[in-house]
Amino acid sequence: xxxxxxxxxxxxxxxxxxxxxxxxxxxxxxxxxxxxxxxxxxxxxxxxxxxxxxxxxxxxxxxxxxxxxxxxxxxxxxxxxxxxxxxxxxxxxxxxxxxxxxxxxxxxxxxxxxxxxxxxxxxxxxxxxxxxxxxxxxxxxxxxxxxxxxxxxxxxxxxxxxxxxxxxxxxxxx
Length: 174
Fold this sequence. Notes:
The chain is an all-alpha fold. The chain contains seven helices and no strands. It has helices at residues 2-8, 24-45, 48-71, 75-82, 85-99, 106-136, 143-172. Helix 3 runs antiparallel to helix 7, helix 5 (85-99) runs antiparallel to helix 6 and helix 6 (106-136) runs antiparallel to helix 7. The longest helix is centred in the last third of the chain and has 31 residues, at 106-136. The chain starts with a helix and ends with a helix. It is a multi-pass membrane protein. It holds the Pfam family TRAM_LAG1_CLN8. Residues 1-174 form the TLC domain.
């Protein structure tokens, strides 16, 4: 729905603060619910040392998306952030293939290539664009919201760079 929203509503790309197409607010609200549920599931069913990075990631997303849901503002910006989740399809498929012990298969290899490609396009590029947008629009964003956004980006960007390095090392430089 996120890329589709930008295609159907080009005005969204001009105003990520106050404009959002029908259903966009609901999508961000449902995403908050997903991250809350996944957070609680990890908290209850995984050891902290295995999941602390994802718990931290989910906390940042819940706060940032929660602001968009509660204020009915920055929904467009949250939609941009949801582009990152396109790559999650391939990250999750990678985990499933690892758990099924299918590391030495063509399917795993193909997924690894697609995973890295979508990682660069939908994670790294999107996060860089979001930081750039925040920086360019700092005068139009209230200081508290700007601080939350920049702190969120300051947390998410290194986490994603580290994960990218781990994926490269694991899948391509064994």
